[in-house]
Specification:
Length: 319
């Protein structure tokens, strides 16, 4: 573990500090001709990941080949889309706007590409500690974020009704979510219920203590399973794609995973080479099936061609 982030060498090294449940980074770069301090969220509750984010940002700030400006990252595709929606509502409700101004959207070039096929995840799970394996399985089946899984408490679980409710305060988008316990997901929760402790509120715990940072255990399991470099967040990506493949309506899949905007959901619903191959196979099968179902024009035989030619010649002579 690195030294505590509250240290004086800000100008060269930057620092990492915590605000609530997530880590933030601070570093210096040149803005408008002056060296200024920049603070931004690392979007993670893992300190090591936060240091990695800091190193990347400092690398960009020091690269003379890039025109680095951290303020450019403040406006995202989703925020511009939300702004367009706000103007549309203002026009519809006649709140001082007669028309919606033109807002060009940013190009989406941040499609996520990390995921685990069900068979690959099953191998990774065998190398995980039992408590982490249960949390990973829950994330793989629901698409919930790591923080949402780790903060799930027994008061959120209704085994009798077979339902789980994610409270708004534990949801990243601050909206509650409801999910039904069925199949393997029910098995996971029943397994956790057998390990429930009265001195611990959390569903996923380690000997009565909240599950903390298990990054090393996760990376080690992925390496042993031949899936080195996979992130725990890939469980979220994988769950979404599995839902779509299983035929779950996208609106329902978004309700389960907690995606509020379609654009973000689409970036997680990744198409793989196997998806493309399956699509070609289905298309070919459809064409063959339709060809057999609909009678077509049979090719002319040699005799038919001769007869047709004779008839045309007779017709021209008659004319």
């Amino acid at each position: 573990m690195r030294a505590h982030s509250n240290r004086p060498r800000l100008r060269g090294d930057g620092r990492v500090f915590r605000r609530g449940r997530v880590y933030w980074i601070a570093y210096c770069c040149r803005l408008d001709g002056k060296v200024r301090e920049v603070r931004e969220t690392a979007k993670t509750d893992d300190e090591n990941e936060a240091w990695a984010v800091l190193a990347r940002r400092i690398g960009k700030a020091r690269d003379p080949k890039t025109d680095f400006d951290p303020r450019a990252d403040k406006i995202t595709f989703d925020e511009l889309a939300a702004l367009k929606r706000m103007f549309s509502i203002a026009v519809q409700t006649r709140k001082g706007f007669r028309y919606r101004p033109y807002l060009p959207l940013l190009a989406e070039d941040n499609a996520r590409d990390g995921f685990l096929e069900p068979a690959d995840f099953e191998v990774v799970r065998t190398y995980l500690p039992p408590d982490v394996a249960d949390a990973a399985t829950f994330a793989y089946l629901t698409g919930w974020r790591k923080g949402e899984v780790k903060t799930l408490e027994w008061r959120d679980v209704d085994l009798r009704a077979g339902m789980i409710r994610l409270r708004a305060e534990n949801s990243k988008n601050k909206r509650p979510r409801l999910i039904a316990l069925r199949g393997e997901l029910l098995d996971v929760i029943q397994q956790r219920a057998s390990l429930r402790r009265l001195d611990c509120l959390r569903v996923f715990h380690r000997n009565g203590k909240p599950v903390g940072n298990f990054r090393k255990a996760w990376l080690a399991a992925c390496r042993k399973a031949g899936q080195a470099g996979r992130l725990f967040h890939d469980m979220r990506r994988s769950a979404i794609r599995n839902m779509v493949r299983a035929g779950v309506p996208e609106r329902v899949a978004m309700a389960i995973s907690g995606h509020r905007t379609r654009s973000v959901f689409d970036r997680y619903n990744i198409t793989s080479e196997a998806d493309v191959a399956a699509a070609v196979e289905r298309t070919s099968a459809y064409v063959v099936e339709q060809r057999r179902a609909e009678p077509g024009v049979s090719p002319l035989s040699d005799n038919s061609r001769t007869t047709a030619a004779t008839e045309r010649a007779v017709g021209r002579a008659g004319d």
